[in-house]
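Continuing the series of single-chain predictions for the mutant panel. This is the parent chain; the variants come on the following pages.
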Amino acid sequence: MIRVNVIYARFSKDDSDTFSIDSQIRGARTYNEKHGMATDEEYIFADEWTGMDFNRPAFDKVKRLLEQRRVANLTVYKVNRISRQDYHAIDIIGKLLS
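Parent structure:
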């Protein structure tokens, strides 16, 4: 099975200090390129959704890829793009990978 590099971005109107989805994706791409990790367009996901709701359309796709063990690398601008609380984000990813 081919494993892919995934980028996930989230913007919430509730977050006053958040970079736009485009700037998050640009930053993640720059990081990935700097570290030799190419990311195809089909594996770039973004939601305009609150971080308190874990059932988000694009994040659900990321979760499925993680559950299928298809993700080599998941890049986000900040961990709080997965969840507002860092410990929730770490817990979610840990459960998906266990």
